[in-house]
Design goal:
Blueprint: E1 2-4, E2 8-9, E3 17-18, E4 21-26, E5 36-40, H1 50-54, E6 60-64, E7 72-79, E8 85-90, E9 117-120, E10 123-124, E11 126-131, E12 139-143, E13 154-159, E14 170-171, E15 181-182, E16 187-189, E17 198-204
Antiparallel strand pairs: 1-17, 2-17, 3-16, 4-5, 4-9, 5-8, 6-7, 6-9, 7-8, 10-15, 11-14, 11-17, 12-13, 12-16
Length: about 210
C-alpha cells in the first residue's frame, strides 16, 4: 500500500519538524484519562486539513515536545475533517479510563515551536521525499532527531531547482524485512533563511 500526503511546508530554519506530522494548537495540556479532541497546526499546503490529509482513524501517533521531552504513544480515534481536528484515544486502542490513560505526560497547545508535535507512527517499507520546484532555500535538510541541524543527525540535503525543473529526491527503495522504517524517525528543516518551502512525501507499507 502506498501512503501519500498533501504538499507539506517546512515552518522554520532553526526548529526541525516531523516529516509526517504537525503541531497541536489547542486541546491538550495535563495528562488525561479521557479522549482528547485536538486542533492542529497547518503543515499542509493549500486547504490545511492536516487531520484528514496526514492522519487516518486507527493510526498510531507519537507526541513529543519541541525540546524532545515527554515522548509518548497514542492512537487516532476519529478525524474532524474540515474542522482540522482529531480525537486521541489510548495508544493500545482500548477504551480510555483511569487504568488506561490517553496521555501520561503534560503537553502544550500553541504555535509552531511551542505546541506539542504529533507525528505519524506507522511502520513502512520505504520512503520517498522530494522538495517542490521553485523553493527559495538553497537546501532542505532531512534527519533523524528533533534537534537535527545541517551538520548534526542530518542524513541528506536536497538542493532547490527552478520552476519547471525536475526536483532532486530521496528514495530508500524497498528494504528487506517487513516495514523496517518508522515514520516518526524522520524530521525536516528548512534552509538558507527560508521557512515556507514545500516537499512531497510518500511511504510504501507492506
Amino acid at each position: 500500500m502506498l501512503r501519500t500526503f498533501p504538499l507539506l511546508h517546512v515552518q522554520s530554519t532553526t526548529v526541525a519538524q516531523p516529516l509526517a506530522g504537525t503541531w497541536i494548537t489547542a486541546g491538550i495540556g495535563a495528562p488525561s484519562n479521557y479522549p482528547l479532541t485536538l486542533t492542529l497546526g497547518s503543515a499542509a499546503a493549500g486547504s490545511g486539513y492536516n487531520d484528514s490529509l496526514i492522519f487516518q482513524p486507527g493510526d498510531p501517533v507519537l507526541l513529543i515536545e519541541p525540546n524532545g521531552t515527554n515522548f509518548e504513544i497514542a492512537t487516532v480515534g476519529s478525524i474532524g475533517g474540515i474542522a482540522n481536528t482529531l480525537t486521541l484515544i489510548p495508544g493500545n486502542g482500548a477504551p480510555a479510563g483511569n487504568t488506561n490513560p490517553v496521555t501520561q505526560f503534560k503537553h502544550t497547545s500553541g504555535a509552531f515551536g511551542t505546541g506539542t508535535f504529533i507525528m505519524l507512527g506507522i511502520d513502512a517499507n520505504s520512503v520517498f521525499v522530494q522538495p517542490a520546484d521553485n523553493n527559495a532555500g538553497t537546501y532542505m535538510y532531512f534527519g533523524t532527531a528533533y534537534n537535527m541541524t545541517a551538520t548534526f543527525r542530518c542524513i541528506m540535503e536536497l538542493p532547490k531547482v527552478a520552476t519547471g525543473q525536475n526536483p532532486y529526491f530521496f528514495s530508500s527503495s524497498i528494504l528487506p524485512g517487513i516495514n523496517p522504517i518508522r515514520a516518526n524517525e524522520l524530521w525536516v528543516l528548512g534552509g538558507s533563511g527560508n521557512s515556507s518551502d514545500a516537499y512531497r512525501l510518500s511511504y510504501s507499507v507492506l
